[in-house]
Amino acid sequence: MMNTKYTPIIGLEIHVELKTQSKMFCGCSASHFQVEPNTHTCPVCLGLPGALPVANQKAIEWCQLIGLALNCRLAKESKFDRKNYFYPDLAKSYQISQYDQPLCYQGEVVLKNGHKIGITRVHMEEDTGKSIHKKINGEDQTLIDFNRSGVPLVEIVTEPDFRNPEDVDEFLKTLRQIIRYLDVSDADMEKGSMRLELNMSLTSHPELISGSHPQFPNYKVEVKNINSFKYLQKALVYEFARQAEILDRGETPVQETRGYQEDVDKTISQRSKEDAQDYRYFPEPDIPPMVFEEKDLENLKKLLPELPQQKREKFTKTFGISTETAWVLTESKELALYFEQAVKLGEVLKIEAATIANVIKNKKYDWQKLSPEELITKLKQESSDKVSDEGALGKIIDEILKNNPKVVEDYKAGKVQVLGFLVGQVMRQTQGKADAEISNKVLRQKLK
Amino acid sequence: MPKKLLTAILSCRQLLEKNKMQLNQLTLLEALDGLKKKKFTSVELTQACLDQSQKFNDKYNIYLTFNDNAFTQAKQADAEIAKDPKIFERKPLLGIPYALKDNFLTKDLRTTASTKVLDNYIPVYESTVSTRLKNAGAILLGKTNMDAWAHGSSTETSDYGPTINPWGEKRLPGGSSGGSTAAVASDMCIFAIGSETAGSIRQPASWCGVTGLKPSYGRCSRYGVIAMASSTDSPGPIGKTIKDAKYILEIIAGEDEYDGTSIKEKSWHLNSLEIKEKIRVGIVTDYFLKDAEKGVNETVLKAIADLQKNPNLEFTDVSLLDPKYAIAVYTILQRSEVSSNLGRFDGIRYGNDRSFFAKEAKRRMMFGAYSLSSGYYDAYYKKALKARTAIVKDFEKVFTKVDVLISPTSPCLALPLGATQGQAMFGEMQDILVEASSIAGLPGISVSCGFVNQLPVGLQFIGKMKDEAMIIKLAAYYQTITDWHKQKPEIK
User: Fold this and answer.
1) Cis, bond preceding B200 (omega within 30 deg of 0)
2) Which of A301, A407, A421, B285 is the most buried (most CB within 10 A)?
3) Residue B21: band (very low, low, confident or very high) from pLDDT cuts 50, 70, 90
4) What is the number of CB-based contacts under 8 A between chain A and chain B?
């Protein structure tokens, strides 16, 4: 960041909407993106009198899988709580969430640079309806769409372990990747199936916040309404500068919630500490507490698919691929699976994993347009077309050397770099079919 | 059949013959028998109940809304009975008219919970309990008055005025299911459904001299019942006899996929009502309050003396935690849950706006919001939860020594109209003998066991969690050796 006088202390709160078939507490379809308003509703998600929530077991399982993937501990006993507040799109006037017994806690994600980001908790809750502000007959109106009301939402809270925006960016991309590997959410910022909030404060004494008894600054600013990873970076930069300027004046920034406004690239104050809501949390009496046996939790672990980190390790160890290439190949689950399938097919035809990896990485072929079979067939063809016969190449090379006496002279005078030119000539003569390695070898022999 | 019962049935038949239009006075089992044997039709039975209601509802203020389709449904029931003599195997309540407390949602039929907030609320779905009754063929006559939002023990806090106790023109029926118990007592129906959070079935059953059965928490689904205190709300039957109540309970009980707190396992096993084995009965000495109304404790002791004649019943005195703790715990938990449950009634999607809330509901919401607010949560709500556990344990302990508990239902007789005025804790004081078992989720029954100043006295049986069978057995035995439940008030 621009100012080295201060170190930022950043924590994140991420909401991820699960793509379960049904909602969190009723049987309604959970899909709500571009769906006719108020068509996926029932007494439960409309908050009608007398309606009761019944918890979606699949969603709970998926929340636990996210926790496992983030190296969290899973609670043996957990429960739902009511978070009471008023908002027109909150049908029951409380949100069913988790307060003091989240499903998952104490996790950790290790970044490329070795920085460890602690995961405070991962818990399950429900989404609210959506307010739509519209002009109807010239009047400002607010309409409410309850299709989203009750859609399962997982909240992931990190420790304030970030010290720079780059780590935040990498963490979020890693998290999104993990969630997509788990196939439990689209984690799409644009569709709102992934939402971000951050909290930030600055310190001029970074030594105080490390160690076992960290002393954090006496204020914290929350920033909401961040609609993309890019805006998050901008919000971080803006907020850093804003807080640094206040601290430079010898003042302390106000503890408050601010909203990022992308049109002006600023954060704007929304609510100060004094107006902080008291959510009057208490255990949700309509849903019995959850108790998980050791056996249940062990079975859950078996459901965990191979995650990007494991795939990368496998790729580098078994296939001898560079770490950098492994990162590229694990960018998406689809690509990683594609690569694995291609390697399997390639094995039979003696095409090396490294060759396949390079072809994909260098984008020689667009993997999304070719099936693994097609890719392997192409690669096989390339290798069988190759002119690798030393005798045949020798004849071509003799011809080239004869036609380029000046170059041969240069080479013999010690200008070995002209070899590249000669290899190029061989390729030209063979329309690229010559095996580069063998051509090189023959050329050297003949030039001796 | 015991001789006493036989004479009772005979006398009932004589009464019927003498007074042909009195079908509404039949018990559920009698009415079913008559329908099966085609002695009368469902139309006649329904008409008798409606006639009674038409004559006296204005005065007693029992029904808030009538089901206009009751008569048509009775006709359909008669057609079904005529067509298929075995129909009762599939529809065990076919053609039986009943009254439903107005906090059970009824699709397309106004449901107010006796609050003006829901004055014009027409539900779009039906409660599980009333759905099961409908599927069993029962005919809904109408929705009965209650304390607004079920907040009370008098039915006097209804936004539609108090219900009058059929046993005394100037007396309260108790509550909150006062409309339902009064409907049964005045024969405006064959049976009724109520709901109890802490006393709301047993206490008005006691004051109205009818049989009220509060099942174990979770035995009957809460789906479609306007929530009061979600952690103790329990729907249950109100009948003219315990056998009626048992019959209804078997139909409305059972797991419901729409209620995550409903009891999963199948209903209880009760093959015979006969007492063949030894049963240990605990007399809860702490529930015979020193300042109980004169005559109440004595009447209950007399009932116990009647029961003691059965050699299979072994009586011992037992002691429970002082009931005053239950009041404190209940007051905090219930108000807290109320403050959250009533939040949805904002008038945005349905119902009237918040200015329609009456005093009692507002008082409870404020109390609850306070006890849940940060800084007070630990001192009130959390502590109350701990005390609740202590109460549950207290019952568990006593149930290692005895199989069933017995005590008065209410320390007093039906109080006069106006008794709730200026009494913020009125309900809690009236429910002092039923709150602890409600908090613990235990099943309980109140049956009539005598009269003091022409007002009924209630005898209470409390059972172990999920052990409705035991209390039903004892209550049924009591009703075979006594006639108190057959006494009828003079309705005029």
Assistant:
1) no
2) A407
3) very low
4) 96
Tell me if residue B96 falls in helix, strand or coil: coil
- Measuring CA to CA, how many Å separate B94 from each of A110, A119, B78, B136? 67, 59, 9, 6
Query: Best residue in B228, B333, B349 to probe A by mutation, most A CBs within 10 Å?
Result: B349
Helices (H), B197-313: 202-208, 242-252, 296-307
**pLDDT class of B268 with cuts at 50, 70, 90:** low
Annotated active-site residue in B101, B214, B246, B473? B101
Domains of chain B: 14-486 (3.90.1300.10)
For A178, list phi and psi in degrees, rounded to 5. -60, -45
The pLDDT tens digits for B411-432 are 999 999 998 887 777 766 778 9
Place of tokens 């003006």: B116
For chain A, which domains are there? Answer: 7-300 (no CATH), 306-385 (no CATH), 390-447 (1.10.10.410)
Closest CA of chain B from A296, distance in Å: 20
pLDDT at A274: 66
C-alpha distance from residue A425 to each of A421, A422, A433, A435, A440 (Å): 6, 5, 12, 13, 11
Which residue, among A79, A99, A282, would best test binding to B if mutated, counting the most B CBs under 10 Å from its CB? A282
pLDDT at B442 over 50: yes
Read off the pLDDT of residues A333-348 as tens digits, 9 standing for 90 and up: 999 999 999 988 888 8
Q: Which residues contact A341 (CB under 8 A, 6 or more apart)?
A: A372
B235 in reach of chain A (CB within 8 A): no
Distance in angstroms (rounded) separating the CA atoms of residues A53 and B120: 25
- The pTM of this model reads 0.89
Q: What is the DSSP letter of A367?
A: T
